[in-house]
Amino acid sequence: DASQGGxxxxxxxxxxxxxxxxxxxxxxGVVEHLNETMCGCNGKEDDVCRCAGLVVRGTHQLIFxxxxxxxxxxxQFRPSLFFTSDSDIRSDPWSAVQAALPPNVHLLTTxxxxxxxxxxxxLVRLQHMYGxxxxxxxxxxxxxxxxxxxxxAKVGKFQEATEMTLTGNNLIEDKFTYKWNLEDESLAxxxxxxxxxxxxxxxxxxxxxxxxxxxxxxxxxxxxxWGEPTAGAAxxxxxxxxx
Length: 243
Hints:
This protein is of the alpha+beta class. The protein is about 10% helix and about 20% strand. It contains five helices and eight strands. It is extended, with a radius of gyration of 24 Å.
């Protein structure tokens, strides 16, 4: 879950830095030494902290293919596997999503954590996973219809959606945009694709490359579908996760 650096110092070689350990400050920004150890200490001089340096393990995948197909394979995330010895764990398949998303769109967020302060509305974020010109087809804008995305039988019928800024605390139309003073205005680079406003009539959301769009979405009966269950009822899976 940590960022990594990599480079090719010589032809035919690939070097990845999975963890950086320095015993003194290397004057590269952290203003301290980085001496993480297996016992959780960062260079303390006592008997408890006299143990081996932190060992970092992970999985790296090398994809030998064309750049377009390689990027596509890297973006399609592998499923996470979980194991338990608890025989009582719920294993019924459940999903709040009923419509397939475009292959370049990711359902980034669904949460009812703030529903009590937002009239029962659910926070939803959609993300375009590809950058500009990263793939000949998947870098193109993609469109999702919000009223067809979620299963009304499980989370309530879609009612309306209001687009917000990324953090969800301001209307998108109230977003403040800085105007930078440039010596040469011809150097100002705008987006390659113009932003398409959310259409509340069709509920269509068009995402440009690398764009994330945030909405407060209202569902009928959202209080029981997404929030806390009624007395004596089992906890709704939607209250834990939409996927």
